[in-house]
Write a structure and sequence with these properties.
Keywords: Membrane, Transmembrane, Transmembrane helix. The chain contains 8 helices and 8 strands; from the N terminus they run αααβαβαβααββββαβ. It is an alpha+beta fold.
């Protein structure tokens, strides 16, 4: 059934003329026309007046009945259609709210595609999250970007960082293989590994310089850091997918997903990060 006024009116007229009420009105109109036609050909007298009165009365009854039926049918149509439309709208609102909840819980709020150069929108949004947070959690390789963000930040927060152990070759092998794919076949693995060790040293020095911007710093040095980088804030979690290198062209800055607070990924990554940073495994520096 159409909810549009034109569609409802057309349906109403069709129902009116193809129901018993419509047939009854048609009989009244035909009877009235026949009575008036017969009376017009008769001689003046009581019989002519009677037949003319019957025809006139029948015509009036047909007109009044048509109007009454039209009004009654229209009211009944509205009474039946309005609840259906309202229920449909309510169901649509509930379904929309459910999809929004699912979208917030399981899908990222922002997606940054791989680039060969730094993305200003990426850095701007992450700095906004850093300015609002009380806990900044970093789980990655060297921590250079974390140190730079802390040095540029105007707020104060607690820093917990999980970094790779530069003394362990296995700790840097994953990132080295990623850079090896990015730089091509002419690159040298040993040179990349040496460069990565230098980056870890730079990151540690940078975090030492940024200690004045933090209320507390807790570093955890592990021999098997996850390949993907995690940056955790109070209201968001940023995951940089170094493990997704096979999905397309390898770029220096991989694909990054931002999950808002309240999402499944934010809660899961926060719990896992706190578990690693509080575990007895690895070297802890406070």
């Amino acid at each position: 059934m159409s909810a549009e006024p034109g569609g409802a009116r057309g349906t109403l007229l069709r129902e009116l003329f193809w129901t018993r009420t419509g047939l009854l009105l048609l009989v009244l109109v035909v009877t009235s026309a026949a009575s008036l036609a017969i009376s017009s050909g008769m001689e003046p007298g009581a019989l002519r007046n009677f037949i003319g009165s019957v025809g006139t009365g029948t015509m009036i009854s047909a007109v009044v009945g048509f109007g009454q039926t039209l009004i009654t049918s229209s009211a009944a149509q509205r009474a039946l259609l309005a609840p259906v439309v309202e229920e449909s709208r309510k169901a649509l609102r509930d379904l929309t709210a459910e999809y929004r909840a699912l979208d917030r819980e399981f899908f990222p709020s922002d997606v940054f595609e791989p680039t060969a150069r730094p993305d200003p929108a990426f850095n701007q949004l992450m700095m906004q999250d850093l300015e609002r947070t009380r806990l900044y959690g970093f789980r990655g390789f060297a921590g250079r970007y974390a140190a730079c963000r802390l040095l540029l930040s105007h707020g104060e927060c607690e820093l917990r960082a999980v970094l790779a152990d530069p003394r362990d070759d296995d700790a840097i092998s994953g990132r080295a293989r990623y850079l090896l794919r990015h730089e091509g076949a002419e690159s040298d693995y040993d040179a990349i590994a040496a460069r990565l060790r230098d980056q870890i040293s730079v990151g540690l020095v940078g975090l030492f310089l940024a200690r004045g911007r933090c209320s507390r710093i807790d570093l955890t040095i592990v021999p098997d850091p996850p390949l993907d980088r995690l940056e955790l804030f109070d209201d968001s979690a940023w995951i940089t997918l170094y493990s997704n290198a096979g999905a397309g062209a390898v770029r220096l800055y991989p694909r990054t997903l931002r999950f808002a607070e309240g999402s499944f990924l934010h809660g899961m990554e926060r719990a896992e990060f706190l578990r690693i940073s509080n575990s007895k495994a690895g070297l802890h520096v406070v």
